[in-house]
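user: Here is a favour to ask of a fellow structure person. I have my own habits and do not want them to colour yours. Could you put it straight underneath, so I can go through it closely?

assistant:
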Amino acid sequence: MRITVVGTGYVGLVVGACLAETGNDVHCADVDVAKIDGLKKNVLPIYEPGLDDLVERNQSQGRLKFTTDVPAAIAGAEVVFIAVGTPPDEDGSADLRHVLAVAELVGQHMTREVVVVTKSTVPVGTAEKVEAAVAKSAKLQFHLCSNPEFLKEGAAVDDFLKPDRVVLGVATDHARSVMAELYAPFVRTGKPIIFMDIPSAEMTKYAANAMLATRISFMNEIANLCERVGADVDMVRKGIGSDARIGPSFLFPGPGYGGSCFPKDVKALLRTSVDRGAQLSVLNAVEEANDRQKHLLFAKLSEAMGGAVRGARIAVWGLAFKPQTDDMRESPALTLIEELLSAGATVVAHDPVAMPEARRRLGDRISYAASNYDALTGAAALVVVTDWNEYRHPDFARIKSALTRPIVIDGRNLYDPAKMAALGITYSSIGRGKRA
């Protein structure tokens, strides 16, 4: 099948490479010349495990092509995926300018009957705007489809190749038939393709992310209460997660959610509720709780240091919002670093893959260590922000000897409080460190 994907960001690149892997002829188009030049040389703009191999293999075999000529890529396509960014406006609403600009190009340059697929995360009602934009110039029949993505950063390739489900919002039999054929190779194990109307598909994406964000904020608040009443959130998590009605996923407390999806999608859904005169009280509380949680690590560090943060050198392990990605959007590490710098501390940080992105964002305002242990030299304390595997079982004796004060703030509950106490390390985690 001849496929065009407009947008070579995180979503578009994964979609294009994975569709090429199943034998489709895929053209990925983007107006960013530097990005496309890099992709033609198999230099990816993002870090995502396994994606580089997919891009290199399919490009070498001629199934995957990159271009800045968006109109030429659209011409001849049977399916066009719109996978451009929808950044939040100041009021939290999704900015649809890029989506609608691509839709207009589809109408102007389509040369055959085409299915126009919205892959970008867009609010309910966007399909109507996309349809109008395509229809301005379209002289041939076109069909709309909403196909929200459910790709976890760090596991996006597996998520696409082996999805839990595929959600397709369609309005015509042609769109249903084409998309069923396109996704058939990915659901051979029996996972469902769920067809629905387009508004429901658009809402499904936001509702899914809002639910996951709610679980995270809920557990963070439970963890904070656990500290006040003398309970251990790890035990509580296991106790409630074994209930089949709840399940164990997204019950780990931490320093707040970040990344490209949860913060943006929660804000966009809240904006939609205001625009439509609905009330989402729970989701408002979720966002407020997450904003508070991002300040928790600095508060714990300041308490452990008796307020003597000014002039101290602080080591930070982890800059990305989660492991297996270099994405720092809305990362709790950014909140912590800004608070440390404002308090007069100096920061030395380490992350296995996000250091180039950190340099782009923070420049020389902080220092960057070649290894996680190098970050400790001369530091008064260590704050663990991201749960990378290499941080899970460190040499604690080495940590203690390198720090000028044996203080460890664990934002991911990676370490055993009893062991840390036995080693003489002043240790604070989330939801299990204090007693009433």
